[in-house]
Design goal:
CATH architecture of the largest domain: Alpha Horseshoe
CATH topology of the largest domain: Serine Threonine Protein Phosphatase 5, Tetratricopeptide repeat
Radius of gyration: 19 Å
CATH class of the largest domain: Mainly Alpha
Number of domains: 2
Helix content: over 70%
Length: about 260
């Protein structure tokens, strides 16, 4: 792939539609191999360069935002700075998509989701969480396409409730059951996206409902990631995380 970068950059500089399409195809080819971190990073950089060369392309900015988010997900938790950089750049790409089209479904969704990850890394007191963006952007996504990214609106709000400290949840009159109910609604949209079940299991665990958590984790571990063909790399990633959590929480217990 290193040999391909000079050609990619040349095509970007030349900048006509045919060359731009060729660059986009190259980025898509890299994205198809995103299960490996190296290719995920190359796809992200490829989309970012293509978007900068074609700044009026909402599609390229959205692809960059998604690629930044996925790259951040793929990087291990212990590598804090690279993860933070990926999510921050993913958010910025999403905001660029919103500049092109304020109603951009992908722009609004990925700006909010990347911002949430940045806040998780930096902490709630860091001042990075943009609640106004959160409400406005997710309202726009819900209005246009609540099914976007495999029931992503419901999953986002479920995780939002989960991440609120317990005192804050009580003050806001939220419960972990609210989080779980939102995940269930997400699963009604797309039952085969493993991230949703992993998140549900984590909320069950925090709520003291270990058997329900175990069932969700065992479901993820025992099913094939290709149940959702367009998200096989993502499902494999969350399947690994589910397996690790299952071992951590239930390793000494009999598995069904």
């Amino acid at each position: 792939m290193k040999k391909a970068w000079p050609m990619i950059m040349l095509l970007l500089v030349m900048g006509d539609q045919g060359h731009s399409a060729a660059v986009s195809d190259t980025c898509d080819e890299l994205w198809a191999k995103r299960e490996e971190r190296t290719f995920a990073g190359q796809a992200f950089r490829c989309y970012a360069e293509a978007a900068r060369a074609n700044p009026r392309s909402e599609e390229l900015w959205v692809k960059t935002a998604l690629a930044g988010y996925y790259l951040g997900e793929l990087i291990p938790l212990k590598e804090k700075e690279p993860r933070l950089k990926a999510f921050e750049e993913g958010k910025e790409a999403a905001l660029q998509a919103m500049k092109v089209n304020p109603q951009s479904v992908g722009g609004n969704f990925w700006a909010t989701v990347n911002n949430g990850r940045v806040t998780e890394i930096k902490g709630l007191l860091s001042g990075t969480f943009d609640f106004g963006l959160c409400i406005k952007a997710m309202t726009e996504v819900t209005r246009q396409d609540y099914k976007y990214y495999h029931g992503g609106v419901y999953r986002y709000w479920g995780r939002f409730v989960h991440e609120i400290p317990s005192l804050g949840r009580r003050m806001a009159r939220f419960t972990l059951e609210d989080s779980i109910d939102l995940y269930k609604r997400s699963l009604e949209v797309e039952p085969n996206f493993f991230m949703t079940r992993l998140y549900m299991a984590e909320s069950f665990l925090e709520d003291g409902k270990r058997e329900q958590a175990k069932k969700q984790l065992e479901w993820v571990v025992s099913h094939s990631p290709d149940l959702l063909p367009e998200a096989i790399p993502e499902n494999r990633l969350y399947q690994r995380q589910a397996r690790e959590l299952l071992q951590k929480e239930f390793g000494g217990e009999d598995q069904d």
